């Protein structure tokens, strides 16, 4: 028993000695690595990079690639790819709108009609009429008035078609005589050549005219479908517009929801002001131009006045087309002098409209620069025809209101979330008069009901 403990002691001492030697070797290896020996050193690590010799030229470190690009190029690149993303989004959106163009135009027309009729529904509801009954009465009355206007124009044209054709023939003969006796030196042979060219053009394009007529049937069917869709949309917007708006807000991200909730009522007020003002201006144009051409004995003065009222909803283009139509009817039925007086009446009323009526009635709520109106009408007409030209200007007006409000809202939110000033800055702010401080902040507009 005396040998076993001694053997165990010697074995433990041996292990202790081996451990010390391993610790010494490990310490020597770490010391050599700290001295920076290269791979040629007997104790150097194989992964170490050799130091350059003393006679080697100095080479500067390569900069970060992002830092090597000029600042202007980096800003242009950042803005460029964001613009590409926005352009791609707009392109996809336009493709989707083109695919469902009929639905989009019908819904936008429903919004315009709702903006016109909603104050009547609200007024009836305030007087104790149930909202469903108020919506039904207002919608039926509005649709009946619009339908009667269309029926009246069609009826007047059909009733006066025979008389108008005879007057057109007489007017053409009078125009022919005036051209022969005019200082333009137009000969009878030249007039006959023009008439023959027109006749040949109509005969050569008979197939195209027939196909256009067939396409017109398709357009009529689509128009009836759009009218029915707009009527149903108007009914639902008048009756349940507030809940539709609240449901739409739930689709907006929570961070942006307060700003959108504040911009919605202001956009609706702008749209309502635009529709009301346009209706009033169109009615004044139709009444005064209609009275002028009536006293000038131009045929179908009342249907022409109704057409002038309807065309007034297409900014700029509508006034030109309706005025040209009235002048053309006066020219072929009553002669050159009546046409000149008709043109004078149309230009006078349109000048009064552009410089007095629109600024006074529409006001600043929907003030849009004339260049923006021209570009919007042109773009809307290219994208969606007459319907696009009608909705282009209210869309631009609403967008202008929304962007302006969101900009003011973000600025006000940034001011509220900024840290309070300290020291001398706080003292300087404290002595600012309250009136100056109030003038520096944008005053929020009063809230309005978001119900369309």
Automatic annotation (TrEMBL):
Any Gene Ontology CC annotation: plasma membrane
Chief location bin: membrane
Record membrane topology: Multi-pass membrane protein
Coiled coil start-end: none
One of the GO BP terms on file: transmembrane transport
Alphabetized UniProt keyword annotations: Cell membrane, Membrane, Transmembrane, Transmembrane helix, Transport
PANTHER family tied to this protein: PERMEASE PERM-RELATED, TRANSMEMBRANE PROTEIN
Family: Belongs to the autoinducer-2 exporter (AI-2E) (TC 2.A.86) family.
Protein name: AI-2E family transporter
The organism of origin for this protein: Streptomyces minutiscleroticus
